[in-house]
Structure formats: structure tokens, C-alpha cells
């Protein structure tokens, strides 16, 4: 009875809008109970298991916003439909803007548009692995490597309070990934005040902003000494743009700090889990591992190590496909970044009211049999080879493969991420063979979190094949 009433309210909202039908809802928690025990992007994948995933009603009254995906969220046709462009494709007026979670809002406020740029690939250091006896925790190593690389590209790596800064970032990741009462009742100031997560995020924001103030001061001083012309990292670029004052909207210091934080945070939380998945899939698929290792070792045999300056001329073909296949199966942001519809529009004949949060289930698109015939869940990089099946492009033009999103709000770090992943993976495969310690079966389950990461940490034993120079 209660369910029926809730369903009716979702279908006919009294405003004459044609909303897609939704799941039955409960007071206060809305549709939340449909998610119990499932990963959200899995639960929202199958319209038979969850009919509302195909025709969900974004009813703003009872339903916590991020549990209400509209139907087009899992259909390339709908994503491409001209009247609604969730990721700002070619500048549609109803293009979305992300409605941040309360923790993210607290940690990264004051909110502002992020700077658009593609950071230059920088040299990823080979992880400091030596001999092939002990198993290593790949997550720990890869996260440290990627955070280090991203931080150096964003603001250099020599600054005071580096450790405090890194700890604060770790804390943001834990808090932002967690379940948070303030997201359930976003309009309630009391809940927001009572929420420990929001308070903690505000404290962390103050700490990171304070450290960033010091770093900015140092950068300004150095720029002054160099005469202002040379730029060494992203922070230099942003400070120079600010000083030149050529932008129509002034670039204030808070926007600069936010851009730096988002880049470090967004970059490491997506790139490192992708690398961990790639290594897991390779160990899980020995033939693919064999082929990609042979390719990398042949390409760099003459150099004795994987050199960033030789990466382009090495002409690796299969390794990029391994990365692409990893991104298809393990899209780090399964729902991309949720967007708020900025003006009413129609998609597939349904009304999308202004202010509704729209999520694109990129994970489901990447595993949809309709677009990935054969075995969509299998790890098969060959599917992207000429004549091997799909020629889908991942740069936002083909909506069945959207690891970096599409349109105006597409990931600005794509080039940096791809270069970083190629360099790191090539180094790992060039110097070492990898095996799962003991006779343990490799657990390939996903965990719930800010990004789609592995449930269990990947423990692998490196076996040294080519000595690492200088180690
Ligand atoms: C495997 C690596 C990565 C993946 C899969 C990835 C994916 C994404 C996705 C899906 C979005 C949202 C796009 C949309 O909703 O249309 C995004 C946004 C963003 N990414 Fe990445 N990303 C990666 C690496 C990076 C790196 C390395 C950086 C920075 C150094 C970065 C910075 C950002 C920023 C700043 C945004 C927000 C853009 C905006 O809202 O305008 N990302 N990323």
C-alpha cells in the first residue's frame, strides 16, 4: 500500500510531466532499500532485476538524489540525444554541473569550475622493487607511485608538511567514499551540522588549504626570482595565468587551490586503481600477460629500461589495448560524475526536470552485450584490434565506452593518465615477471567506494628478469 502510494507519486507528479516510472519507495529513505547488499552500478545495470533502473523516476521528494538514475543513463542513444547532454556534449544548454556530495563539498569548497588543461606526461619512477622473493602489496605501491607523480606535476614534490598533506588527502578519500547521513538529507542543516564526516572534511580542507598557502607563496617567490617566464608545474601555470589576467573570469587563489587538490585527488584515485586492476587481469589471463610482456621487452631491450622519452617511438600497440580493456571492464568512475540538469528537457520522450541529478552508468555500458558481443565480461584486449570486433573510441565520441566521460566536462587529465599508466605498466612488465603467491585463487570482486576498486588488495610476487638501473 505504502509502496503503491510512493510509486504513484513518482509516476504522476501533478505537474503534467511525463516522468519515467520508478521503483516503489519508502518514506524518508526513498529508494535506498533497493540497493541493500549490492554495488550501486551493479544494481542499476539490469532492468529485469531492477525495472526502475530502466525507467527510474527522479522523484525529488522521497528519493535521495544519487539513488535515482533515469533511464537514459544506460543507453548510448539517450546520452547522445540532442536535447539532453549530461556531460555538456557540444555545449547543450541543459548541460549538467556536478552536484557534489556533502563531504566533497565540505572538503573542496569554495566550489568553482576546474581549470581545463592537459598536464604534460612526467617521468613515472619505476617502483622500488628489488628481488623476487616477497609478495608486495600492489595497491600500496601503485598509489604511492601515482600520487607522487601527480603531485610532482601539479606543484613539485619538495615542500614543507608534505607528509601532513598526504595524510590529509588519504583522510579525504576515506571520508568521501563512506556512507554519509548528510547526503541522505542534503537540505537539512541540522543533519549536516551533526554529521561528523562533514565536520572532519571541513577540518581537512582548512589543513590542506593552509599547506597550499605556503606552497603558493614559495612558488610566487621562485617565479619572481626566475623573472616569471619559466613554468615548472601546474601551479606555476595557474599562477602565471592569474598574473596575466587575460581570463574573462578572474582566477582567484581559492580556485587555484581547488584545481590543484582536485587534480591530485582525482588523478590518483582513478589511475592507481586502474593499474591495480590491469595487473590483476594480466595475472589472471596468462596469455595476455605473455603477449604484452614480450612486446614491452622487445621494444625496450636496447635501452635496458623503459624510458619515457622513447615511449612514443617504441610503437607499443598491445599495451594501450590492455589499458583500454581494463578501463572498459573496470571503469574507475562507474557513474562518471553525477550532473545536475540545468534546465528542463526531454529524453527518449520523458521529461527531465531542472535540478534533477543524472547519472550515466558507464560501467554497465562497458559490459553491455549489445555493444560488446560475445563475452562482454571477458578480458580480451584483442577485441580492439583492427578486425577484432570493436573499434570503439574512448575519447568521448562513442557512448558505449566512456571511461573519461564525454563533452565539456570530460576528464581533463586523460592524456596525463594514459601516459602515466603506460609508463608504469611498461616498467613493471619490463623488469619483472609477476605471480600470485601460494596457490591462492585471485579474488576479482569489486568493493563499494569512491571509485570502483578491488575488494581485496592485490598481492603479487615480483621475479626480477631485467635489473633496474640504479637499484
Ligand atoms: C584512469 C584515469 C582517469 C579516469 C578513468 C578518469 C575519469 C574521469 C571521469 C569519468 C570524469 C568525469 C567526466 C564526465 O562526467 O563526463 C573525470 C573528471 C575529472 N578528472 Fe579524471 N580520470 C582519470 C585521471 C585523471 C587525472 C590523472 C587527472 C588530473 C591530473 C584528472 C582530473 C580530472 C578532473 C579535474 C575532472 C573534473 C572535470 C570537470 O568537472 O570539469 N583525472 N575524470
From TrEMBL:
Co-factor requirement: heme
Subcellular location: Membrane
Positions that bind heme: 411
Chain positions covered by the region annotation Disordered: 78-134
Membrane topology category: Single-pass membrane protein
InterPro entries cross-referenced by the UniProt entry: Cyt_P450 (IPR001128), Cyt_P450_CS (IPR017972), Cyt_P450_E_grp-I (IPR002401), Cyt_P450_sf (IPR036396), Cytochrome_P450_71 (IPR050193)
Gene Ontology CC entries for this record: membrane
Biased composition (Low complexity): 102-114
SUPFAM superfamilies attached to this UniProt entry: Cytochrome P450
Keywords: Heme, Iron, Membrane, Metal-binding, Monooxygenase, Oxidoreductase, Transmembrane, Transmembrane helix
Chief location of this protein within or outside the cell: membrane
Pfam families: p450 (PF00067)
GO molecular function: heme binding; iron ion binding; monooxygenase activity; oxidoreductase activity, acting on paired donors, with incorporation or reduction of molecular oxygen
Family, similarity comment: Belongs to the cytochrome P450 family.
Name of the protein described by the UniProt record: Uncharacterized protein
Originating organism: Panicum virgatum (Blackwell switchgrass)
Amino acid at each position: 500500500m505504502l509502496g503503491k502510494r510512493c510509486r504513484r507519486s513518482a509516476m504522476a507528479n501533478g505537474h503534467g510531466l511525463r516522468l519515467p516510472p520508478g521503483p516503489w519507495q519508502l518514506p524518508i529513505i526513498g529508494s535506498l532499500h533497493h540497493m541493500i547488499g549490492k554495488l550501486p552500478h551493479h544494481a542499476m545495470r539490469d532492468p529485469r532485476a531492477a525495472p526502475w533502473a530502466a525507467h527510474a523516476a527522479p522523484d525529488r521528494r522521497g528519493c535521495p538524489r544519487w539513488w535515482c538514475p533515469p533511464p537514459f543513463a544506460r543507453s548510448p542513444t539517450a546520452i547522445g540525444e540532442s536535447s539532453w547532454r549530461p556531460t555538456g556534449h557540444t555545449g547543450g544548454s541543459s548541460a549538467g554541473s556536478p552536484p557534489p556530495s556533502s563531504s566533497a563539498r565540505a572538503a573542496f569548497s569554495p566550489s568553482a569550475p576546474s581549470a581545463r588543461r592537459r598536464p604534460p606526461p612526467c617521468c613515472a619512477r619505476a617502483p622500488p622493487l628489488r628481488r623476487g622473493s616477497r609478495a608486495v602489496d600492489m595497491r600500496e605501491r601503485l598509489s604511492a607511485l601515482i600520487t607522487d607523480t601527480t603531485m610532482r606535476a601539479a606543484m613539485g614534490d619538495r615542500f614543507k608538511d608534505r607528509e601532513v598533506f598526504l595524510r590529509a588527502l588519504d583522510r579525504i578519500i576515506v571520508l568521501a567514499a563512506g556512507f554519509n547521513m548528510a547526503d541522505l538529507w542534503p537540505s537539512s542543516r541540522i543533519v549536516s551540522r551533526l554529521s561528523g564526516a562533514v565536520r572532519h572534511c571541513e577540518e581537512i580542507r582548512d589543513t590542506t588549504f593552509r599547506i597550499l598557502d605556503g606552497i603558493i607563496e614559495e612558488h610566487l617567490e621562485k617565479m619572481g626570482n626566475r623573472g616569471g617566464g619559466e613554468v615548472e608545474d601546474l601551479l606555476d601555470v595557474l599562477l602565471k595565468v592569474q598574473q596575466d589576467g587575460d581570463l574573462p573570469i578572474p582566477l582567484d587563489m581559492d580556485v587555484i587551490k581547488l584545481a590543484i587538490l582536485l587534480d591530485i585527488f582525482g588523478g590518483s584515485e582513478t589511475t592507481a586503481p586502474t593499474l591495480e586492476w590491469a595487473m590483476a587481469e594480466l595475472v589472471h589471463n596468462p596469455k595476455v600477460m605473455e603477449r604484452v610482456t614480450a612486446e614491452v621487452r622487445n621494444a625496450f631491450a636496447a635501452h635496458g629500461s623503459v624510458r619515457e622519452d622513447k615511449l612514443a617511438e617504441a610503437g607499443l600497440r598491445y599495451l594501450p589495448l590492455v589499458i583500454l580493456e581494463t578501463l572498459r571492464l573496470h571503469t574507475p568512475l562507474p557513474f562518471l560524475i553525477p550532473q545536475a540538469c540545468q534546465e528542463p528537457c526531454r529524453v527518449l520522450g520523458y521529461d527531465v526536470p531542472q535540478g534533477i541529478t543524472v547519472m550515466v552508468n558507464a560501467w554497465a555500458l562497458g559490459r553491455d552485450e549489445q555493444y560488446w558481443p560475445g563475452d562482454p565480461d571477458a578480458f580480451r584486449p584483442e577485441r580492439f584490434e583492427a578486425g577484432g570486433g570493436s573499434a570503439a573510441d574512448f575519447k568521448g565520441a562513442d557512448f558505449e565506452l566512456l571511461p573519461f566521460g564525454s563533452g565539456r566536462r570530460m576528464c581533463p587529465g586523460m592524456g596525463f593518465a594514459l601516459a602515466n599508466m603506460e609508463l608504469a605498466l611498461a616498467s613493471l612488465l619490463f623488469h619483472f615477471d609477476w605471480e600470485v603467491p601460494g596457490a591462492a585463487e585471485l579474488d576479482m570482486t569489486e568493493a563499494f567506494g569512491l571509485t570502483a576498486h578491488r575488494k581485496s588488495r592485490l598481492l603479487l610476487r615480483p621475479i626480477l628478469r631485467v635489473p633496474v638501473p640504479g637499484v
